[in-house]
Amino acid sequence: MPSKISGDLLARQLKNAHDRLYELFTRAHAGAEERPLQEALEELSNALEELRVTSETLRAQNTELAAARAEIEIQQRNYRDLFELAPDAYFVTDVAGIIQQANRKAAALLGVRQEFLPGKPMALFFPAERRPEYRSMLSELARDHGVGDHAFETDMVPPNAPRIPTAVTISVMRQTQTSGRRAVGLRWLVRDVSVRQRFEDQIKRHLQRLTVLGAINQAIISTLDLDTVMAVLFDRLQELFPYPIVATARLFHPETGELEPLFSRNIDDAEWKASGMRVPGPRADAAIHSREPLVIGDLATDPRTVRGEFYTKHGLASAMTVPLTLKDEVLGILSIYSKERREFTAEEIDLLASVGTQAAIAIQNSRLYEQVLKQSAALQAARGELEQKVEARTAQLAKTNEMLRAEIDERRRVEERLIESDRKLRALMQEQEQQLIASDRLVSVGELAASIAHEFNNPLQIIMGFAQ
């Protein structure tokens, strides 16, 4: 806009200068006075100076415009690069959905050459059943004066190729007019979400698997009854397979070692048990010895099939068997059968193996619980017998204690009598001791008297001798 204004101003100034020069030329030929001619020259000089300033301004603006044009070209080139190298498919259409531009990713998504797309309607690449909905959406986008994006998910249908799940975002390009904002085109961002859907499906299956295993764990924790646990296991097992299955479980008897048919689902239980073998067949034997899942795609033709007529009668086509192993001990086998010939996937095989591990834990816990119950009953009986023995022994000990108590009382009385006798004996001894002391004194006096008498007798004898 400034360049247009400067150009108009320059044109007017040029016209003014031309008019003044023409007037000056006319005056010069008419012999005009010198004073008016001098004024005209001054005016012309001023006009030329204004023209020079305007010319400089215009030159500066032209330089700015050239720089802006170069910047716009760079931005356009960047836009083209971004458009072509975008990681998602990108389309530009008119309001009727006719493709005007499409990037490389769009051509790669649809499996066509890039130059094939311009001029083609976008509806061509939508499923036929969704095209009426698509046309209605385009009409609403053209009428809607909003500026928001419109996002939805749909399948794209490439020529001669399978459908591709995509996420589509449409932005409306509008042009401002005096009557309002008019839609002039559409921008389509189309993203291939097949990888995302595969991951979502895997996450859903993994979540379902965890849910089933969690339910089985909960059943194992909540009850130790084997029938209840196996019923829950078979119920949950059916949820993991999107097709009908027959499930069976045979367990080794802990004492006889026979492979007993115990549990089944979706088959005549009595008939299955009646036809079951008490020893492992070739298929069960292979799974038990390898400790790995065994898959048979066709029971009718596999050489390891023993009861072919039974499987044919019940319409069982394929089978998968896993050993119920716990700490290197095989407790039995778990089998599922499909009524249509199938190639079991690695995920299904791994899932059944995980369920087999849970089943082995449940079986072992149940058996341990039964052993505990038996041991508890035996301990209860032993306890009753022991209590009887204890009661008899207690009565005997009570009787013995009573006899001991009587004997102790008798001994206490004898001891008291002995103590009294000892006391009396001591008193007697003291008395006798006093008597002995007195006797000793008398003896001493007697000895003294005898000695004195002897001493008197000798002089008396002499005196008597002299006296005679």
Summarize the structure.
By secondary structure, the chain is α+β, with helices and mostly antiparallel strands. It has 10 helices and 10 strands. The protein is elongated.
Show the helix and strand layout.
Elements: H1 2-30, H2 34-85, E1 89-93, E2 99-102, H3 104-110, H4 131-143, E3 150-156, E4 164-177, E5 180-192, H5 194-222, H6 226-240, E6 245-252, E7 259-265, H7 269-275, H8 282-290, E8 294-296, H9 308-313, E9 318-326, E10 329-338, H10 346-467
Antiparallel strand pairs: 1-2, 1-5, 3-4, 4-5, 6-7, 6-10, 8-9, 9-10
Helix pairs in contact: 1-2, 5-6, 5-10, 6-10
Description:
This protein is α+β, with helices and mostly antiparallel strands. 62% of the residues lie in helices and 17% in strands. It has helices at 2-30, 34-85, 104-110, 131-143, 194-222, 226-240, 269-275, 282-290, 308-313, 346-467, and strands at 89-93, 99-102, 150-156, 164-177, 180-192, 245-252, 259-265, 294-296, 318-326, 329-338. The strands form two sheets. The protein has a five-stranded antiparallel β-sheet with strand order 2-1-5-4-3. A hairpin with a 2-residue loop joins strand 9 (318-326) and strand 10 (329-338). The longest helix is centred in the C-terminal third of the chain and has 122 residues, at 346-467. It is elongated. The N and C termini lie far apart (207 Å).
Main attributes of the structure:
5-stranded antiparallel β-sheet, 468 residues, alpha+beta, elongated, 62% helix, single chain
Low-confidence stretches: 1-5
Helix content: 55-70%
The amount of beta strand, in percent, is 15-25%
Enumerate the strands of the largest sheet in spatial order, edge to edge or round the barrel: 2-1-5-4-3
**What structural category arises from helix and sheet content?**
alpha+beta
**Beta-strand segment tally:** 10
Radius of gyration: 62 Å
Instruction: Using the alpha-carbon principal axes, give the shape.
Output: elongated
Mean pLDDT: 80
The total count of helices amounts to: 10
- Topology pattern, helix = H, strand = E: HHEEHHEEEHHEEHHEHEEH
Distance N to C terminus = 207 Å
